[in-house]
Design brief:
With 137 residues, this protein is an alpha+beta fold. The chain is built from 1 helix and 6 strands, in the order E-E-H-E-E-E-E.
């Protein structure tokens, strides 16, 4: 089974100035099985939702911040959003995908998050794991 990245990179500009740069990476399983299609559909939905959030809410916020900074003669640092993943397939056909997200809201705030999705590869079903069972690596 091969897992390939799907990458979407773009920026949002206000008055010709980039105010938000983003890059979203999701995994895509290159397999025609029903399980792979189910997992791929989940990550395609994440890509769609994150893109929609970035091009509307965060893009508007970045534009408003830029406008405020310019009207008050302040430095503006463009916002950014980047996500990437690391897959791991165990011997017992369990797929673990760690997603890392970094959001930079200029000088105001920098956020880093990690998310873990665990899948059974035979069925494509997500597995629930108690947080205490996850390693802290």
């Amino acid at each position: 089974m091969k897992i390939e990245p799907v990458v979407k990179k773009d920026n949002i500009s206000y008055a010709g100035i980039p105010v938000l740069n983003f890059g979203i990476q999701i995994p895509e399983i290159r397999d025609n099985s029903r399980a792979a299609k189910r997992i791929n559909k989940y990550y395609a939905r994440i890509l769609k939702c994150e893109t929609e959030f970035l091009t509307t809410k965060l893009g508007i916020s970045a534009s408003e911040t830029f406008e405020y900074c310019m009207s008050h003669s302040r430095f503006f640092e463009p916002f950014s959003f980047y996500s990437y993943y690391q897959p791991y397939i165990s011997e017992n056909e369990i797929l673990t995908i760690k997603r890392f997200i970094t959001i930079n809201l200029g000088k105001a705030c920098k956020i880093k998050n990690e998310f873990v999705d665990i899948w059974e590869l035979k069925s494509g079903a997500p597995l629930k794991v108690h947080p205490d069972k996850l390693s802290k690596t």
